[in-house]
Amino acid sequence: MTIYLRMAQCLARTWLAATVSMILLFVGFSASASSYWQSWQTVGRAELSWGFWEIYDSELRTPDGTYSFDQQELALVIRYRRDIDEEDLLEATDKQWIHLGIPQSMRKQWLRELSIIWPDVKKGDRLIFVLNAQGAAFYQGNRLLGKVESEEMAKAFLGIWLSPQTAYPEMRRRLIG
């Protein structure tokens, strides 16, 4: 009986060690997957102000620090300088998409998706939109908020800042260098 008890204890320790190793491996992989863009070079920076209010700072990053219209890898980092609730973020996004001529049916679908992903933001929070060969995703700091399945939606979101038809051409100029 003693030998079976020792074997069971040994098996339990081995299982626990394997489980802990897998958890650490997964956590390490998730952290590196969400932050690899941080080593990318800055293309440009811009600030959005409205009257006396500073809304956010934005930064565009790419692997080599240059931007082209058909860029496949980039990160748009937005650091909020004030609290903004999710509903206001969605409303502002919709207004920009209207300005860019995005059809209502697409806007509604995409805004529903974003309403699931986006949180309320507090002063100092960073929302990051990362586009790469695997797709696109939103992060808050290093935490994955959600993935964007539609390439068209990803391009429309980036178009708010990067499209030649943006409502903020000076911001675009500063971001793309």
From TrEMBL:
<dbReference type="InterPro" id="IPR016087">
    <property type="entry name" value="Chalcone_isomerase"/>
</dbReference>
<protein>
    <recommendedName>
        <fullName>Chalcone isomerase domain-containing protein</fullName>
    </recommendedName>
</protein>
<feature type="domain" description="Chalcone isomerase">
    <location>
        <begin position="69"/>
        <end position="177"/>
    </location>
</feature>
<dbReference type="Pfam" id="PF16036">
    <property type="entry name" value="Chalcone_3"/>
</dbReference>
